[in-house]
Amino acid sequence: SAVISQKPSRDICQRGTSLTIQCQVDSQVTMMFWYRQQPGQSLTLIATANQGSEATYESGFVIDKFPISRPNLTFSTLTVSNMSPEDSSIYLCSVGVLAGVSYNEQFFGPGTRLTVL
Amino acid sequence: LAKTTQPISMDSYEGQEVNITCSHNNIATNDYITWYQQFPSQGPRFIIQGYKTKVTNEVASLFIPADRKSSTLSLPRVSLSDTAVYYCLVGDAGNTPLVFGKGTRLSVIA
Asked: Which of A43, A99, A104 is nearest residue B44 as measured by Cβ atoms?
């Protein structure tokens, strides 16, 4: 298993500013992902955070808006840049952990609730 | 990635067995079927995962027919605390990130 913590747990920000969300895992993991969950909606994958290389972004998400760092196998950050009210969401960090011979289990952090005014 | 279809919502009384069926017609040979549970203000939590036939753990059972084009999550004797959103996901079990569908919102009534 994996225990994931995120900071901050919530924040209220002004339009045009940026917020960096931290994700810390209690063990080294190869796979780390960032998701967004807008109010009342399902989770949407933003990107895969790659250690030692640039993140892999999903369609609709770009590095300039959501820069991601992955300096080591236990830590990642997601920055939400130049925020607008449409960025108000819960942002979740997730990791993949080997759970069997041939498959992994994905664990999720508690999320960061962001409100942009 | 295989697309999944599941009911948007379900209601159940306490103590009843709840079965949530998910369709995944274009599941690939190396895909696993995984179910997650999400309570409000929390991240999703793994419930159960299977490849074929039946899998049971302390929380739920997962039934998968031979053609694997659908699966059924069975929650025995639900309680109010089982009120949550349940997601059915199909994929290669962690080698690529999970892609979430809309999920099923289960409401358990006293």
From this structure: A43
Q: CB of A57 within 8 Å of any CB in chain B?
A: no
Q: Which helix (H) or strand (E) holds A34?
A: strand A31-37
End-to-end CA distance of chain B: 38
With b meaning 16 or more CB within 10 Å and e meaning fewer, what string describes B57-94? eeebbbbbeeebebbbbbbeebeeebbbbbbbbbbebb
pLDDT digits (tens, 9 = 90+) for B19-72: 999 999 999 998 889 999 999 889 999 999 999 989 999 999 999 999 999 999
CB contact under 8 A, B99 and A103: no
Say which range, A10-14, A50-54, A58-62, B46-50, has the weakest mean pLDDT: A50-54
DSSP A58: P
